[in-house]
Amino acid sequence: MFNKILMFYKEAKIKKAKKEGLIVGEKTRILGIPHFGSEPYLIRIGKRCTITSGVKFITHDGGTWVFREWSEYKDVKKYGKIQIGDNCFIGVNSIIMPNVVIGDNSIIGAGSIVTKSFPNNSVVAGVPAKFIMSLEEYMEKSKLHATPIKINGPAKKQKLIEIFWGE
Questions:
Q1: In this predicted model, what pLDDT tens digit does every residue of 41-83 receive, in sequence order?
Q2: Backbone angles phi and psi of 40, in degrees to 5
Q3: Closest Cα to residue 164, out of 143, 144, 149?
């Protein structure tokens, strides 16, 4: 029952953000509860992306609130767009800051804070996020360390326990 409530809540948040102007390409998966901030119309996510749980899109700099009331900068507000290219993966609990463009075929590591733009075929991670390697290098590295398994369901579970725990 709780999972159904969470799913309903998630779908409602996505629907509301789209109604407000969020653009999400076809075949894009949004896992967990998304956070599109107060300006979802400044966010564009490409086709065939995966946005994992806990990802936050920040489209403004709320820090200007501190000085607006008492300074000569009463009208200063800062906003920025966020654009995610096609075929990207955004890892768990990452934060994408304003004025960031992530190129096609890119991977953002879990827990990253992305404060600047990255070109196509980039693997980035960290706080702040930095270029780690090209997508081609990541593919080669992944091939070397791949887990040799081609099954799903209960058989997958048993095989992974056997591989990693020797049971």
A1: 999 999 999 999 999 999 999 888 899 888 888 888 999 999 9
A2: -60, -20
A3: 149
Q: How does DSSP classify residue 5?
A: H
Q: What angle do CA 91, 99, 76 make, to 5 degrees?
A: 130
Please confirm whether the linkage preceding 154 is cis (ω < 30° from 0). Answer: no
Q: Are 138 and 107 in contact (CB under 8 A)?
A: yes
Share of the chain above pLDDT 70, in %: 99
Residues 105/120, Cβ–Cβ less than 8 Å: yes
| Rounded CA separation 104/85 (Å) | 4
Separation between Cα atoms, residue 60 and residue 53, nearest integer Å: 21
Determine the residue type at 20. E
Please give the Cα distance from 17 to 129 (Å, whole number). Answer: 26
pLDDT of the residue at 73: 87
Q: Is the pLDDT of residue 2 over 90?
A: no
* 10 has a pLDDT exceeding 90: no
- Whether residue 29 contacts residue 51, with contact meaning beta carbons closer than 8 Å, is answered with yes
For residue 36, what are its two tokens?
Answer: 């599109």
Q: Which helix (H) or strand (E) holds 159?
A: helix 153-165
Indicate the DSSP class of residue 32.
S
